[in-house]
Structures are given as C-alpha cells and as structure tokens.
Amino acid sequence: MSVLSGSSLISSAVSGLTNAYGVLSSQNSDGSGLKVSNLTNLSPAVLNQLGGTSNSFVSYLTTNFGNMDKNNDGIISVDELTNVTNDLKSQGLTKEQISNLCSSMSGTDSYSKILEYFDQIDANHDGKVTDAEIKAFSYKSQRQKLDTQFNGVKASNYSIYYTDESSYGETPTSIVDGLYPDV
Asked: What is the model's pTM?
C-alpha cells in the first residue's frame, strides 16, 4: 500500500464542496447563497462548470441541505458552508461522507483503501477519520511491511564473503559483517 494522504482526501472533499457551492450559488442574482432550487434541474452550462465530479457534490449538498442550513432560512450561506468545511477539516470524514464525496474524484484507489481499512484507521473509534489518523495508519502499515521484509531475511539467503578488513578499507562489504547498523 502506498502512503495514504488524509490531507489530500479532506482537501479534495472541501475543495469540491466549495467549488460546487460557488458555481451553484452564483445562479442567484442577489448573492444570498445556495437555495434548494439551485440544486434541481441543472442546466448543461452549470453541469459543465461543475465538471466531472458534479454528481457527488450536488448529491451531498442536496442530501445534507437541511443539516447545513443551520438557521433554517432555506439558504446555505457562505458562513454556513464555511462551518461545514471547517468541521470536515477538524473532525474528519465518516465512511458515508467519503463514499459520497470522494467516489468520483481522482485518486479513487486511495479512497477505496481508506474505506477498506476505515475501522483500523479510525484510531479513536469516533466514526470519522482525520488526516492525522490516516497518516498514522499509513506509516504504521509501511513500518509493518518493512518489519516483515526484514524479519524474513535469513543469513542462509546471503553468500558470505570473507576477507580481511584491509581489503575493503572504510567501506563494508557485507550486510552480514554487522557494519551496516541502519539496515
């Protein structure tokens, strides 16, 4: 497994939401914010502006509109969106949010790995994964992989080259010599 990046996952989700919000709310001439009517019957021009990831972000905004509209005025303001994105950055993403927001983004293989190992990554078991948890899991798995490789090495797998120290001078010649302490 390559090193997973939580910051790219969360940044991509926040960026996608912010971009979708900007495109959709710009349809209002009064600049009031995002209305439910902005999320339905999207024109081809708006879909083009949203790009290929539009479905997941529009779907997320539609599904979570009531939760995001904290003052229940029928409009998601910039402040309300900022609160949501700040929460995503600080508190992390749930399995459902990762599935909804990241399904059509680039790097889907990484997101699939995060979903696959979600319960192991979620170190504090709060149902969300943060950038720090993803990084810690990634480093831990890389360490385990290296430990496994190192522990699998047997002296019988190496040919031993015997010589006196004067023939190789300052440069050690063999891992078996014990002269490579940081292997």
From this structure: 0.69
